[in-house]
Amino acid sequence: MNMTTRFEMVGRKKNLNRFVMENQEVLRPAFCTKMMYEGQLKVYCVGGPRLREDYRITNCDQFFYMKYGDMDLYVMEKGIPRKITIKQGEVFLLPARIPMSPQRYSNTVGLRLERSRTRQELDCIRFYTRDNSDVLYERWFKFTEPKSIQPVIDDFFVSEESKIGIPSKNSKLMVAPYEPNEKVCVGEPFSLEQWLDRNSQKLNNGKLDLFQGEFKAEVIVYGTGEDEVVNEEGDTFIWAIHGTSFLDVAGEATRILEVNDTGYIRRGRRYKIMREDGARVLQITFPHNQDSNDWQRTFD
Predict the structure, then answer these.
(1) Residue 194 phi/psi, 5° resolution?
(2) Residue 170 covered by a domain
(3) Are 141 and 256 contained in the same domain?
(4) Tell me: the pLDDT tens digits for 217-274?
(5) How far apart are CA 55 and CA 77, in angstroms?
(6) SS3 category, 177
(7) Rounded Cα gap, residues 107 and 99, in angstroms
(8) Are the C-beta atoms of 238 and 13 separated by less than 8 Å?
């Protein structure tokens, strides 16, 4: 199936390699983060070094891919600390409500995706005691962008709890709107390229879920073929991994997607993904929080 001559390259798209190259300075301290797309879905490129002592708890899944170099992700799994190393070329999907502490190093760049919060949702920054047996300090706050985390961390380092290392009556100032998930077993990162090789035959005839488990995030890899999609649950991120593909969004001109080209589609838009032989396209959608009734007003 060769469709190259049928369409011209028009419309706005972003190439992941070019985006990283153009933002090298921003991906180093003190910023280390550059937003690639922002809407109901947030797509970041994250560099380093940035080492952290805090753990963050969110009410949504978190997608990780390491483009260059390795990172460590410390999590609290069933109340026990665990170190997860995500190597270059590996993908990982962290379930919602798992305390996490990402550690990023020099000359590394990764892709991270999460959904925007509704007006009612809060994130948590938490510090544990030295032996991880108790919560030393936690604060719930409204997350809008990565910079909104730093003031919460700064408050901890001037607190009495930070100085003495012992929890106090001020360690927690409010009843938690939700508790960490201490039932789920967190999976392992894996090589995206090796997964594509293992599933090559199946992908030549359609599409596959990249992750198995109880996730709200939908991560699909499309192989050779053509699919028409309309997603009412959230915005969609498209990433061309191999070959040549075509993205046809209703009401817009068709975009040619070559390797590492990306696109972003607003919820409710009908689109068609057409892939030549051997092409592979990653599609990520984070459905909104079904428990909230204000999502539509927030992001329309």
Answers:
(1) -65, -40
(2) no
(3) no
(4) 999 999 999 999 999 999 999 999 999 999 999 878 889 999 999 999 999 999 999 9
(5) 12
(6) coil
(7) 25
(8) no
CB atoms under 10 Å from CB of 74, counted, come to 17
Return d(Cα 75, Cα 63) in angstroms, integer: 14
Q: What is the pLDDT of residues 89-135, one digit of tens each?
A: 999 999 999 999 999 999 999 999 999 999 999 999 999 999 999 99
Q: Let me know if residue 3 belongs to a domain.
A: no
Q: How far is it, in rounded angstroms, from Cα 101 to Cα 57?
A: 9
Q: What is the pLDDT of residue 12?
A: 73
pTM exceeds 0.90: yes
- Which two three-digit tokens encode residue 227? 């699919």
For the purposes of burial, counting CB atoms within 10 Å of the CB of 112, is it exposed (0-12), middle (13-18) or buried (19 or more)?
A: buried
Task: Say whether both 58 and 137 belong to one domain.
Answer: yes
List the structure tokens of 260.
């590492």
Q: Which of 174, 63, 177, 74 is nearest to 110 (CA)?
A: 63
Which secondary structure element, helix H or strand E, spans residue 194, and what is its range?
Answer: helix 192-198
Q: Which two tokens stand for residue 237?
A: 């991120």
Q: Name the DSSP letter for residue 28.
A: S
Q: Which helix (H) or strand (E) holds 55?
A: strand 55-57
Q: CATH number of the domain at 32, please.
A: 2.60.120.10
Which tokens belong to 143? 């997350």
Q: Which residue has the tokens 């938490």?
A: 126
What is the count of structural domains for the chain?
Answer: 2
101 and 203 together in one domain? no
CA 165 to chain centre: 32
Q: Measured at the alpha carbon of residue 274, what is the angle toward residues 273 and 275, in degrees to the nearest 5? A: 120
Cβ pair 209, 216 in contact under 8 A: no
